[in-house]
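User: My instructor asked us to take a sequence, write out its structure as tokens, and then describe one feature of it. I'm not sure where to start. Here is the sequence I was given:
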Amino acid sequence: MKKQITAILTTAMMLCTSIPTVAIPLEISVSAENISSTDFIKAGNLTYRTYEDHAEIVGCSLDTTSVYIPVMIEGLPVTVISEGAFEGCSELTSVLTAEGCKLIHIGANAFAGCGKLEKVTLQGGNTLQSIGERAFADCPSLEFVKIDSDTCDIFDSPDTISAKTIIAHEGSTAQDYGEKYGISVSLTEHSERVTIDGIDYIVSETNAVLFSVNPSMPSEVEIPAYVNGVPVTEIAMGAFQDSYSKNLRKVVIPDTVKSIGERAFADCPYLQDITIPESVEEIGAYAFGRYMGEIPWMRTQQKQNPLVVINGILVNGYMANGAVTIPNTVHTIAPNAFENNTDITSVIIPEGVTKIEAETFSRCENLSFIQIPDTVTEIGNGAFWGVGLQSVILPQNVTKVGTSSFIYCKNLQSVTVMNPNCEFDGGTNEVFWNTENLVNKTKVFQGTIYGYSNSTTQTYAETYGRNFISLDSEPLAGDIDGDGAVTASDAAALLIGAAKIGGGQSSGWNVLQEKSADMNGDSLFDSRDAAMIFEYAAYLGAGGTDSPSVYFRSR
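Assistant: Let's start with the prediction itself. The structure tokens for your sequence are:
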């Protein structure tokens, strides 16, 4: 039987507001209006407590997505992240401390329970002295924690850092911690900070990373290919996101650069000209701003083509509308690329794309159809957050579904998982739900999950009280909509699916629906099958009681 099972039919209902990203320069000045008391300062979405000789981060807004820890605030070094400062920040995905950061201590439970937190980079040499108990506990998405300090005292417990990988120097206490508790350790080289023409680089023995800028940076910048004899390979997260970048007009990137980090150029209001070489293989979320484009260069690209593609990477689709077919030349869709686009109605993703990145289609409230290719292996965190999908089919090659991938999907009624070994975000229930029980604070999924018997899908569904139907079962012939009856509406559903197949799209049916639709067993879905359903529905209406198989066997 032909398997046309890669469509998602959606009617979106947006339940969430925009999620801000925190971006903090190396030194912060705060107006008097932001001071909530003599000791506490609110800057962006972060809250600090100031003392005579230092400042501590004590809290943040729960919807913060990324954090850049500055060197100074109000002329005071930021030395402490207090106990529980970011605990439970469910939208936080990344943390980066500034090069030259004065951070000394990270308190107990500082980032505990941050379900979406993926990457933490703690720079500043040996300044960092200690990491408290459960500082990074219960972070199921945490890919890595990079610790520059060789002598940091990490609380001796397997729950202190729940990362898949620790990046550290050879012989460091961080290496010892990872090896003791069975965490993968990636060794990195020692580096130094070098400043050239107002731009700061982190230079190791093998490469250099453009990290930040300072007041002497000119308005037109040509990034050197080499610094101290090693190639510049990366532009770091938020590199030009600083008040000193306000006058930047032009940037030329050398062909040694392979990666442009998250929000690297997001805060450059006059940047009109960027030369990006073919060597760039990775571009982070909001690298050139959000939505309509926070920089003139992006707005120009959007006018030329609403799908902004750089070296096969679709970095921005906010201005697209209607039915969208992503070009076959695209192999990667950047995180948040279509976020909050309320004008797209359907999207066809080409073969070759392997991951639906974090929040790629979040809050696309009018997206009603999406075609996911068989090459996709992972659904990222929050990929379809708040989109209001009606049905979802995850192809055979999807091996992982990230946290919050389909939460706030109010209309989601059917989820079909074709891979019997698919992983659901480390086992949390923050994957599929469309409403909350306000009495007992539980997440509720009102639809049905389809998967194979004895699969991880069945285990997931049963563990969290979701309705589960095995794909191994034999469906009622003709019951396309799965309501337990064969009616004219099933025939109509068959004709709609057949028309989609004829138009080169997926029917959107799961395996059981395909079995139900092929009434005559010829592995095709057409008007003959629909006619048989109409005939059987009329037979039932006349008082008939035989099952479809018995009825048609007697014909």
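For the description part of your assignment, you could build on this observation: The chain has a mean pLDDT of 84. Try explaining in your own words what that tells you about the chain.
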